[in-house]
Every structure is written in C-alpha cells, then in structure tokens.
Amino acid sequence: LLDAVETESPDLAVVDIRMPPGGNAGLVAALDIRARYADRVRVLVLSQYLEPEYALRLLGSGAGGVGYLLKDRLAEASELADAAKRVSAGGSAVDPSVVDELVRARRSSDRLSRLTSREQEILELVAQGRSNKSIADVLGITPKTIEGAISVIFSKLGLEEDSRDNRRVLAVLAYLDGGSRSDATS
User: Which residue, 165, 138, 135, is CA-closest to 148?
Assistant: First the structure.
C-alpha cells in the first residue's frame, strides 16, 4: 500500500484497519500516509468494529481529508461513494458512533481533570498493567493505600460497582481516551 501511494500518488487511499501482515497494519499505514502525504493524499479508513483508540489517533489532528467508517453501517455502496467524495475533497466522513465515542472520550478527559496528580500517577501505572503491589513498590507506599486510592479514582471517574464491568479496565480506557502524559512523549 505504501509503495503504491508513493508511486501512484492517489487522491484517496481507502484502507481497512486490519490488513496483512496482521493486527492493525492498515491503521499504521493510514497514519503513515497522513504523516507523509497529508497535503496530497486523503485517507478513508474502514473498520469492522469501533476501535476508539484507533479513531482518536487517526482523527486526532482535526485536519480534513480523513474518514473513519464502520463497515457494517454502510448499507449501500452509494454511502461509501459519498464518503469517499467528501474525504477526497478535503472534508471528512466519520461514522456517527465514532462521533459519539469521541464526545464520550472528551467527557472522560474532563473526568480525569478531577484526579489529583498522585491519583493520575497511580492511574498511569494501572494503565501500564501494574498490580497494586507493584504500584505500591514504585511509589514507596503500602498496597492498602493503593487500594484506597484506586477506589477514590473509580468514584471520581463515576465508575459504579457493577458485576458486569471491570472498573479497573474502564478506568484505564477513560485514561487512554482522555490522553496521557505518556501519549505526549510517544
């Protein structure tokens, strides 16, 4: 794909997030195309599932000439053609559920501002996949203190206890959606 974009210089690259060789190779290619050729090649990404972190990475710059659509919501070929025309013209085409997710992510960011710097530090370590004991060791405090802090974080993020949900995972998603200090460095 990248070689074809380089040699053919298309107006629009339509990319599936899941392309060979595997994983999110299509997203990586789309981001690369945006970085290298944003002035001349537009990108329309198709995805089977709503993957908020991918949408945020792709749409994060706010620049036009980009789209993110969910394949199962494209009922007619004309919808895809219309989206391709808008993106090619420098506009955007974003699936409504992606917009909803971006708005929710913005709210998550607002919720994160409620956390103290210490709570944000703890949540960042949780997002790294560390256990309470590991976090306690890194910060030089007791695991019991970490448990209490995580409970406060859940409360401040509005994560009610529910047997259907893993609040630790939901807190990490709120953290990732709302931006992180490590995102700024990567």
Answer: 135
Length of the chain: 186
Question: How many alpha carbons lie under 13 Å from residue 49 in its C-beta half-sphere?
Answer: 5
| CA–CA dist 21, 13 (Å, integer) | 18
- Compute the distance between CA of residue 15 and CA of residue 80 in angstroms, rounded to an integer: 12
Checking DSSP bridges between strand 66-70 and strand 92-94, what pairing results, if any? parallel
Which residues, listed in sequence order, are joined to residue 93 by a DSSP beta bridge? 67
Calpha distance 70→111 (Å, rounded): 27
pTM above 0.90, yes or no: no
- Output the six-digit token pair for 9: 């210089």
DSSP of 83-107, one letter per residue? HHHHHHTT-EEE-HHHHHHHHHHHH
Query: pLDDT tens, 143-185?
Result: 999 999 999 999 998 888 877 778 888 888 888 776 433 333 3
In the chain, which ranges are E strands?
Answer: 12-16, 42-47, 66-70, 92-94
* Segment holding 79, helix H or strand E: helix 77-88
Rounded distance between C-alpha atoms, residue 6 and residue 63, angstroms: 21
Q: How far apart are the first and last CA of the chain?
A: 24
